[in-house]
Design goal:
558 residues, sulfite reductase (ferredoxin) activity, five-stranded antiparallel β-sheet, Sulfite Reductase Hemoprotein, domain 1, oxidoreductase, Alpha-Beta Plaits, globular, Sulfite Reductase Hemoprotein, domain 2, NiRdtase/SiRdtase_haem-b_fer, Sulfite reductase [ferredoxin], alpha+beta
Length: 558
């Protein structure tokens, strides 16, 4: 680890294990926190933001930013009881902006919360056994797991491992309880962070559990990807390390990287091996420059062999090689499915993860009246699980009464159903351009194009959009990725695998939003003309190569 610490590292070191200056600034009469407070707030699951749509007008009036806060609720595996979901929904009206935002890591975000609402919101969550602790910050974030409740004798156990691992990797500091839950102040020499230490991790750390043969979680994009090994039930796990998608425009050394297979271990060893990997990143990840602090750069710099040897040294035991992985699908479990235990589940499409208006009221009515459990998905959608067959018609009627469409019943275009976008403007401080607000129009233009070309039935390309290069909606692993480059323009990536096993490549820079569908037209026409039977668009792009695609685009434009 470098001796030189970045500014954020110094703030963490001086925070008394995530207390200061949040504890002092929470009730100081201001509507925002200092820069130091903002950095520490992240560990408590809170981002300080302002409405960027209003910046210019407020500045002209001599006013400061219109501050508000985004609060992220960590929900391991996206699993919620009916009571928990209803509590989350209540808070959206009481303290938020009347929406819930499902994230690509199965969390829930509140936007538009004022400073005075932070404490009551977190206290209400706590009463329902929910927390925002370590939903953000330089720690292990929300642990993701495949949400589909198929009764295969494995998935329920995998979810239990995900939930247990999440709890095991939470920070041990009492700061969260002291500040938000009025706990007795307990900072002392005896308080320790045995896993994280005084400066926690160099950067955020992401973990996801796939299901057997099912990569709906995008397991290769994680710091640690965990894949079940199934024999007579769940026998072990294959671990992948060093994935991550964020990059910075203009810094060629930063780039998206897919995780690499490290080892296959018995399930009893999972916790100790994961903790050893986290400790290696804690001790050896860069702390001088945050743009290079993710574990993917440590694995890339050292090489997998040295990284594995270091993990083995921390464990005190050798690790076996990784077994080969095989993938059958990477879908999001939308529509009706039989669970295999006599019950059903329904995957409900939530456009860009934003639960609002009639959709929100319809979901609430279903949970309230039928007592349904909920799972949030890595594609920002929602599952109703454990539905008795006799409730199927009632559930559909409830949703339809609120204008909520059921997937695969002809109401939602397939390309719309598969698309994702991050929140971006107006609240995200990192956004360069639009994503969530732009995607509905863009994706419907693409749907019209697919219909014109006779491609609307599939295979349908997965299209993802982000407002900056950090990649929150995972555009780099999509078949078509749109990454914010400047105001109203994007870098177009092509060729990602629909199974999540291959990254797309940059195809065209500074693509204007209004030109996205026109640029895709000749490429999709070429796909229709030259694809193999059943070939996905991303696989086609990879097979023919970007130069052939550029030639087609150039010919269409001249």
């Amino acid at each position: 680890m470098s001796e030189k610490l970045s500014k954020v590292e110094q703030i963490k070191l001086q925070s008394q294990r995530l207390r200061g200056p949040v504890d002092r600034e929470l009730e100081n009469g201001l509507d925002h926190f200092s820069e130091e407070g903002y950095q520490i707030l992240k560990f408590h699951g809170i981002y300080q933001q302002d409405d960027r749509d209003l910046r210019k007008a407020r500045k002209a009036q001599g006013l400061g930013p219109a501050y508000s806060f985004m609060i992220r609720v960590a929900i391991p595996g996206g699993a919620l009881t009916p009571q928990q979901y209803l509590a989350l929904d209540d808070l959206a009206d009481r303290l938020g902006n009347a929406t819930l935002r499902i994230t690509t890591r199965q969390a829930i975000q509140y936007h538009g919360v004022h400073k005075g609402g932070l404490k009551p919101l977190i206290q209400t969550l706590h009463r329902h056994l929910l927390t925002t602790l370590s939903a953000c910050g330089d720690v292990v974030r929300n642990v993701v797991a495949c949400p589909a409740p198929f009764a295969d004798g494995v998935r329920a156990e995998v979810l239990a491992y995900a939930q247990a691992l999440s709890q095991r990797l939470k920070p041990r500091t009492r700061a969260y309880y002291e500040i938000w839950l009025d706990g007795e102040k307990a900072v002392s020499a005896e308080e320790s962070e045995p896993l994280y230490g005084d400066t926690y991790l160099p950067r955020k750390f992401k973990i996801a559990f796939a299901a057997p043969g099912d990569n709906c979680v995008d397991v290769y994009t994680q710091d640690i990807g965990i894949v079940p090994v199934v024999g007579q039930g769940l026998e072990g796990f294959t671990l992948l390390v060093g994935g991550g998608l964020g990059q910075s425009h203009g810094l060629k050394e930063t780039r998206p990287i897919l995780a690499k297979p490290l080892t296959t271990i018995p399930k009893a060893q999972l916790f100790e091996v994961v903790e050893a990997i986290v400790r290696v990143q804690r001790d050896h990840g860069r702390r001088d420059e945050r743009k290079y602090s993710r574990m993917k750069y440590l694995v890339e710099t050292w090489g997998l062999e040295r990284f594995k040897a270091t993990v083995e040294a921390y464990l005190g035991t050798p690790l076996p090689p990784a077994e080969p992985l095989h993938w059958a699908s990477g879908d999001d479990h939308l529509g009706w499915h039989e669970q295999g235990d006599g019950r059903l589940f329904l995957g409900l499409f939530v456009e860009n993860g934003r639960v609002r208006d009639e959709l929100r009221r319809g979901i609430r009515a279903a949970v309230e009246q039928l007592g349904l459990e909920v799972r949030l998905t890595p594609q920002q959608n929602l599952l109703f699980i454990n539905v008795p067959p006799e409730q199927k018609a009632q559930l559909e009627a409830l949703l339809q009464a609120h204008g909520v469409p059921i997937p695969f019943q002809g109401q939602i275009p397939l390309v719309v159903q598969q698309a994702m976008a991050c929140p971006a403007l107006p609240t995200c401080g990192l956004a360069i351009t639009e994503a969530e607000r732009a995607m509905p129009k863009v994706i419907r233009e693409v749907d019209a194009l697919l219909t014109q070309l006779g491609l609307q039935e599939g295979p349908i390309p997965h299209i993802r959009m982000t407002g900056c290069p950090n990649g929150c909606a995972r555009p780099y692993s999509a078949e078509v990725g749109l990454v914010g480059r400047s105001l109203n323009s994007y870098t177009l990536y092509l060729g990602g695998s629909p199974l999540g096993t291959r990254l797309g490549e940059p195809f065209l820079d500074n693509l204007k939003r209004e030109d996205i569908a026109p640029v895709l037209r000749p490429l999709l026409a070429y796909y229709k003309e030259a694809r193999l039977e059943g070939e996905a668009f991303g696989d086609f792009c990879q097979r023919v190569g970007l130069e052939a695609l550029r030639e087609r685009l150039h010919a269409a434009q001249t």
